[in-house]
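Please, structure for the following, as C-alpha cells.
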Amino acid sequence: MRTLRTAAVMLVLLGLAPAARAAEPPALAKARTLYNAGNYEGAIDAAAVARRQPTWSDAAALVMARSYIERFRQNADAKDLVAAREAFVSIKSSSLTPRDQVDLLIGLGQSLYLSEIFGSAANLFSTALARAMLLGPRDKQMLLDWWATAMDREAQTRPADRRRVVFEQISARMEEELRQDPGSAVANYWQAVALRGMGDVDGAWQAAIAGWVRSTLSPENRGIRLRLSPGRASALFQCPEIRPRLRTPYAVIPTPSSRSVGRNNLWSAGGAKAARSSSGPCARARS
C-alpha cells in the first residue's frame, strides 16, 4: 500500500509540474530555451529579467546558476563558479517544481565537484538519484555518471587501503542499474572501472567485454554512449593489466561511432574543468 501511495503522489506531482511550467513568464521560458541551446550568456541575461518577478525568482535563479556552472566548465573562470554559488544560495527549494528541485541538487553537487569536494558532491548526486523517476532516461544516465565520477575522484584522494569501499559502492549501484537497464552505457563502463579499482582485474576485463556487447541492447542510449565512445573505451583497454587480454577474439568488436558522443552539457561529467582533472580508469592515486 505504501508503494501505491508513493506512486500516486509522484503521478500527481508529475501532472502538476507541466502546468506550472506552462504558466512561466516569457523571460523565464526564454532563459530555459537559451540554456538548452547552449547560449549561457543569453540565458543569464534572460534569467536576470525573470528574477524581478517574485513568484519566479527562485526558478530563474536556478537557470542562472546552472548557466554560470556551464560557463565555468567552458572557460574555467573562477568568477562564474562564485556567481553560481551565490545564485544557488538565494534559492528557496520549496518554491521550485519537483523537477527543478532535482536540478537544484544536481547543480549544488556540480558546484562541490568543481570545487574538488568530491565526497560531498557524490552525496548530493545520490540524493538526486533517489528522485530519478522525475528525470528522463538520458538525464538519469548522465546523473548516474556524475555520481560515479565523483565517487571515483573521492577514491583517488584516499590512501590505497581505504579506496576499496568506495569502488564497492560504485559496483553495487551499477549492478542494480544493470538489472533494470542491461544496455546502460554508463553502468557498463563504471562496473568495469569499479572492479578494476577493487583489484579484480579479471572481473574488470570480463565486465568490459560484456558491457561492450550489452550496450547494443539499448539503441535509445546512443546519444549518451559517452563511456563507451572510442576514447573512453580505449582508455580502459589500455590499462597495463588489461591490455594483454586484447588477444581475445572479442577485441575485434567495433567501437561505437564517435558520432554517438553528444556535446557536453549540464549532465555530462566531461566538461572542460572536469576533463582536465579526471582520474581516468587507469589512474593510480598517490598514497
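The first helix runs from residue 2 to 22. Confidence is low (pLDDT under 50) at residues 1-20, 223-231, 246-279, 283-287.
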